[in-house]
Amino acid sequence: MAEKHVELLSPTPYPNHGNTVAAWVLVSLVCLGVIVGAVGFSIFSQTLLILGLVIVVLGIVAGIAMRAAGFGQGGARTKYKHH
To answer: Nearest to residue 63, comparing CAs of 15, 13, 14, 28?
Structure first.
């Protein structure tokens, strides 16, 4: 018979529940971008709409970069590093 490799996840989540600097930056910039884009859409301003989309993309890139730098869940620069 073939052997099956079963990997069990830790039953305890991180104690910060995803409350990290990287998450806050990502969510804040994405929310700001959506607000700017919605205002641009509602007043028929293509410039504001595009600016909102750019802010959303920058927020996503900033969140990924901060996570890679250790500011995300389980990162070296977060308060709670281990389960």
So the answer is: 28
Q: How far apart are CA 54 and CA 74, in angstroms?
A: 28
Mean pLDDT by 10 residues, the chain (83 residues): 71 72 95 98 97 98 95 81 52
Q: For the chain, count helices (H), then strands (E).
A: 2, 0
**Residue of 23, 8, 11 lying closest to 83 (CA atoms):** 11
**Measured distance CA(40)–CA(67) in Å, rounded:** 30
This prediction's pTM? 0.77
Asked if residues 78 and 20 have their Cβ atoms less than 8 Å apart, the reply is yes
Q: Distance (Å, rounded) from C-alpha 63 to C-alpha 60? A: 5
**Cβ atoms of residues 59 and 29 within 8 Å:** yes
